[in-house]
Amino acid sequence: MTRLLIVDDEQIERDGLQAILRKGFPELDIAQAKNGKIAVEMAAELQPDLILMDIKMPGMNGLEAIEHISKDQPGIKFVMVTAYDTFDYARSAIKLGVKDYLLKPSKASEIVATVGKVLGQIEEERMSAETSKRQEDALRKVLPVIEADIVTQLLFDHVHEVHLDELVGLLGESAGGEPFAMCVLLPQGAEGLYAAIREKARQAGGGWVGAMYGRHIPVIAFRDPARSYRSQALALARELLSVADAGGIGGTSPGPGLSGAAGGSFVGIGGVCHSLDQIRQSYQEALIASSDPTVPVKYRFYADTPALGMVREGLSAKQWERQFFDRIRLGEWERIEADVQEVLRRCESEGADLLLGQQRALELLWLASRVLLEMGVETESPLFSVQARDYRQLRAETDLLLARMRHAFETHQERIKPDAIQQIRQYVYEHSHEDISLEAIGKRVGLSPFYISKLFKEQLGVNYIDFLTECRIDKAKKLMGDPERSLKEITFEVGYHDPNYFSKVFKKMCDVSPTEYRKTLLGKRGS
Questions:
Q1: Record's InterPro entries (predicted)?
Q2: What is the pTM of this model?
Q3: Residue 236 pLDDT more than 80?
Q4: Coil, helix or strand for 33?
Q5: Residues near 308 by Cβ (< 8 Å), separated by ≥ 6?
Q6: Sign of CA dihedral 254, 256, 259, 260
Q7: Which of 11, 278, 451, 502 could link 491 by a cystine bridge, Cβ 3.0 to 4.6 Å?
C-alpha cells in the first residue's frame, strides 16, 4: 500500500486535501502532521512514499523539514504546497528534489492530477525495483554456471577478451590479485561433495570453482596482498579438505608406488601467475603437485614437488612438463611413450632405486590419465600388476599401461559421431536464450565439458562462449527490427540478465551500441 503524509499548520487545509485525495485515490494510506518538526518524526516512523509539504509554517518550515527527511530517507517523494509562487522557493525546492508543487488554493482536479503523476512515478519505480530483484535472483541462481564455465574456458581453452572482463565483473568478485590454481582430488564415492566444496570455497573467499571432471575439482584463487601466498593457499586447502573430513570420507593414502589417486582427498597447489592468461600453466602445476597423494599431509605445493621430467633439448623442467601435457591432449602417443621411457632410462643410468623409478613412472601415468579424463576419456587407474624386479621389467609394465591408455583414447575418438559438434552447435543455437552451460550440454550428449570445449575450438575455430554470444547477438539483431520491443525486453529474451552487460558485449561485438544499431536498422526500413 502507498503511504502519503500531509504536512500543514492549518487543520482545514489538511482535512481538505485529505478529502480530495481520499476520493481520487481511495487505496491511499493517508496521515497528517501539523508542523515540520512533527513531520520529521512521523516520516521516520511511517516511511511514507509521498509527502505533501506546506512551505510556510511556524518553527521548522517546509524546506527545512524536507532537507532533514531527505538525509535519512532519500527515496521519499515531495510535492510542495504553498501560497507563494516565487522563484527563490522554487529554486530551493528543486535543489531538494521536490517533484512538483501546488499553489494555494488549487482546484480538486489539479490536486488529483499532480499527486496522480507522482504516484505514477512511485509505482513505476516500485515495479522497476521488483523487476531488478527478480533479475538479481535469477542471476544469483545462474552465477555458479557462469563461474564453472569461466574456469573451464580459462583452464582448458581461451576466453575471448570480449567476455572475460565482463564475466569477471558479473561474478561480483575481485580478480585484481595475482591468480593461482588448485586441484581438489576427492576420494572414490565422494563426487556428491562437489556442491559443498563450491560453497566452502565461496565462504572462504577462495575465488572460482570449476566443473568437476572425474573426481577432480579445479579452483582459481586470487592473491590476498595482506597475506603470504603460502599461508593463504594452505588456509584455503585446509578449508576445502575439511568438507571431505566432515563427510567421514577422508580415507587413507595408499602405499608408495601403488594406486595413488584411489586414496583420500588431496589438494595440489600451483604457482602464482601474473595474470589469468597464464592460469592454465598454474593448473598443470596443481595437477603435478597432486600426482602423489601419499605424502604425509593432504596437500602439496608444486614448488615442493620433484620435477617430473628433465632438461632435454634445451627445455627446462617446466617446459618439459608443459610439452608432456600438450602431447597427451594431441594424442601423440609415440612421443608420449618415448618421454616416459626416457625418464626411466635416466633413472636407471643415474643408479636410482627401482622403487623411485616406479614412482616416477606412476606419476607420469597418473597425469596422463588425468589429462585424458579432461577430454572425456575414462581409463582405469594406472596400477602395476606386479612388483618389477628390474628396470627392464618396469619399462615393459609401463609400456603395457600406456598401451591401455592409448587404446582407450583411440576407442573414444572412434565412438564420437562425426556430426557431434554440429548437433551440439544446433542445440546451443536453439537454446542460447536459456541458462545453458558446457556441463549441462555434456550431460545431454554424453561428453565431458572439457572435450566439448576442445571440439568447438578445433572444428569451429571459436570457443564455446564466443559461439554462444554470437548466437545471442544474432537473435538480438533480429528482435531489434520490432519497434514494439524495448531493449530491456530483448536483453532478457536472448538470455542475458543484465542490460548493461548486454550493451557492453553488443558494442564490443558490433562496434556500435544496441541503441545506435537499432536506429540505423529502423531508419533503413522506414526509408
A1: CdaR_GGDEF, CheY-like_superfamily, Homeodomain-like_sf, HTH_AraC, HTH_AraC-typ_CS, Sig_transdc_resp-reg_receiver, Tscrpt_reg_AraC-type_HTH
A2: 0.54
A3: yes
A4: strand
A5: 288, 291, 317, 320, 321, 324, 343, 360, 363, 364, 367
A6: positive
A7: 502
